[in-house]
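Researcher: Batch entry, complex prediction.
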Amino acid sequence: MAERLTEETVQKIADAAAIALTDEERQTILKELQEILDFVDVLRAVPVDGVEPTVHPVPLAIFMREDEPERRHDREALLARAPEAEGGFIRVPRVLGD
Amino acid sequence: MAYETVVGLEVHVELATKTKLFCSCRTDFGDEPNTNTCPICLAYPGTLPVLNEAAVALALKAALALNCEITRETKFDRKHYFYPDLPKAYQVSQFDRPLGRNGYVDIEVDGEKKRIRIERLHLEEDAGKLIHTPGGTLVDFNRGGVPLIEIVTAPDIRSGKEAAAFLTELRAILAYAGVSDVRMEEGSLRCDANVSVRPVGETRFGTKTEIKNMNSIGSVERAIEYEAARQMEVLAQGGTIVQETRRYDEARRVTVGMRAKETSADYRYFPDPDLVAFTIPEAWIEEIRESLPELPDARRKRYVEEFGLSSYDARVLTQEKAVGDFFEAAVAHGGDVKAIANWMMVEVLGYLNKEQKSIDAVPMTPAHLSRLVRLIEDGTISGRIAKEIFPEVIATGADPEALVREKGLVQIQDAALLEAVVKRVLEANPKSVADYLAGKEKALGHLVGQVMKETKGKANPGLANALLKKALEARRGAGGA
Amino acid sequence: MAAYGDLLEERIPDLRRRLETGELAPEALLEAALERIAAVEDRIESFIALDPDAARRRAAALSEKRRRGEALGALYGIPAAVKDNIAVAGLPMTAGSRMLEGFLPPDDAVVTERLLAADAVIVGKANLDEFAMGGSTETSAYRTTKNPWHPDRVPGGSSGGSAAAVAAREVWYAIGTDSGGSIRQPASFTGIVGFKPTYGRIPRTGVVAFASSFDTVGVLARTVEEAAIVYDALHGFHPSDTTSLPRDREPVAPTLGRDVRGLKVAVPTFWLVGLHPDVRARTEEALRVLEGLGAIVEPVDMPHLAYAEAAYTILTMGEAASNLARFDGLRYGRRFSDARDLAALYAETRARGFGREVKRRVLLGTYFLSAGRYEDMYVRAQKVRTLIRRDFERVFADYDLVAGPTVPTPAFPLSERLSDPVAMYQSDRLTSPANLAGLPAVSVPAGFSAEGLPIGLQLVGDVAEDALVLQAAYAYQAATEHHRRRPAL
Ligand SMILES: [Mg+2]
Ligand SMILES: [Zn+2]
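Model: Structure tokens for the complex:
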């Protein structure tokens, strides 16, 4: 049987995903997530021992780039898209130094 | 109770590629902020990583130079955490298939040899740089996406000194291999230390702390020594060690707790679906293996065996590849190997140290050094003259031979010329002559000094000595007359 | 219908010939499309952004190109829509999310570059489910697209805007993305052709990632022939997407019309259960048409198809949680928070920037990748993905194609499934297997329900058998008339 979610688990997931939840959202989301967890629980019935996991569905050959610099973008044009930029830097709320 | 220190190091080294790991932005250090960025390294929606072949090649080279086994079937994984220096909110790294495994570095501390095992070496991308100001934190992504190798040692290190020896040797190996410019001050080599202590004889590990913010090999050594002593003190007082991250404060020479280690952060690693898992061809590994230059350890052995240098001298001369290269080039131009080695260690390295310069930055050539040594050997100049003109030779690139001639510094080898000087000196120093004849041999030294002074240092000191002795003995034979 | 009515019903190859001779000007064709858009857009709401002026400049430039006597591309002058999770430089790209409101992508997507290199005219950005997560286009933060066949029905999703724009004759073709059916399901719901190539055939560069190992760029058009012409202009490896595949050995469009006699078609028994009766009936009829063309149609058992939806759910949510982590309000896009505390800024921005469905998937994806669940859920789903691929491999050892309905039901009513995520996910159950296995698949119109809603037939080919899929679909379409019916608008 699928794991029984608790509000605490939901909050932990939300913290890891960096998504704020109101108390009410936490409860509705819990219900919805639980439903989906119950739905995907059917996979437990599938014997998968010794089966290789698939990452890409089709065979792909590795392609690597040559180490040649290329510059196609202007800093100002890129920084103009940032909500906060200053003197060539992107600005964010102060974080504690480490 | 007696305790022992247990240290494992995690070293991040920026690879010497021209471009980033997954985009074509330059990796140059010190450029204007965010000028080396693009939609890929800023994690714009729709962008995809394209692996830099040179980064893989350099990482493989590093792994081979550090005696690692190569994981031929390899892949990249995503390591997730939110932080403003990490644009995708995941770092592309390697989790369960690191490029290199089970390597080692041999070190020597206080004449004792020791092997430090390397558990893994993997390829990953660097984060951006944060600058903290009162008004907020500023982010520069020039460094974001620069290729790094992370090297993790086994907990084989037992002191700050061993850690320093390991880092010194690691740096030398990586520099020799041309993998990185390994400049700790520019952040192209960074080191964190996991430190714990345990009673001597205990086989289990104690609780460890992770030490960060060490900006030189010396500070790594000091930080580990401090931290180990601190932990022993805590235990001696009956306390327990808290697993945490601590910052080294170089100014105060202490470690300071930053935060209790988050209940083991969950990075949610999984294989990056934007990058293809791949097999490294055996032929590529062989090609890289063959391209490896002679590494410091082999070079040291050769210096001892081939040149007859002491193992200490061999170590000093091989620490930096360019210094060893210079030394060998000078030897190839001729001259006594040991004399050249001494000049390298004392005068050349002393000068570089004083001037904070690298050997590539001085105008003097190996041929000049060889010539200088040979000028002493063939008696053209004295060692003293050589030392006098050396600063000019190294700083301006002047040919020592031309300089000697130009300045008229050629030694007086002509006995006839010197005999006149000797005669004058003996006449001007009756007291010393008397002393010598009375058995005070020391007086001879003073007289030699006077000859040198008269000739402005150009007299061949051996010849002056011989001539003085002969003249003095002649006086003694004359019955003191 | 206005004076342009006849023009709107013409097919791309005919238009292309008339444009090449100069009998028809790109400007005139564009005006026909813009007039049609003006007439129906307020009822259908296919587009998030329209830029008629830019399209007009483009049409004029193409006219000039012809006057200069230059070679003209395969899509010369034909108006198109591009799903709004694909970058078109100069037009905003929202991916249907508030998070990217006003975001201007600095570069064209590779697929856009190739469209433009083929001389296409892009009229606007089509509506979609937010970040392509949904099957109804209702999770878009901007508007709800309606099904041109019935104003109270969804157009399907997530490429619902693309599908509706083609079905409503606003454009001749549209570019969409398909991670679990997002091209084929809306094509089925709106009575058009939706082609999802083999994974990697069209590079993803410039396409906002939902689930990287599933996301496939493809084509929506009114006929198979037109879909093939567009596909030919777009497919092939690009060095900016190292998961992309080389070009097909030869262009597909000229190979259409190849005989399908003797083609072996497998129909998974699991795909014929739990269907709406009209879907079941139309599917049976369609299979009989294929038999009539000389194909051999046989039922097969594919034991792991029953697990496709669950595996798809876990894997796409895991990848989505990771891919969408970059939307944090720092480097681009919107910031929905004044917090001076960074953790709060992230959490508030992502709480308000993402809609409900996206949050649901990101949260679950985070859960599936978390310590203690990863091996048991995510890796297990990756293994089930392998088993589903093996089911297909086994079938393709004996058969050329796998066939069945595209969706178990015709288009459902607006808002019916919005609050029932499990029911919504299950509408992908026939389409997601092709994404799990990376296979080329097409949905082609196969008739209508009793209520007059379109129903699609799905054909799935083996890896890289894109041409075969389109050849069979073309043969089917040539033998049927369903694609000629058009919605009364
Ligand atoms: Mg690391
Ligand atoms: Zn870049």
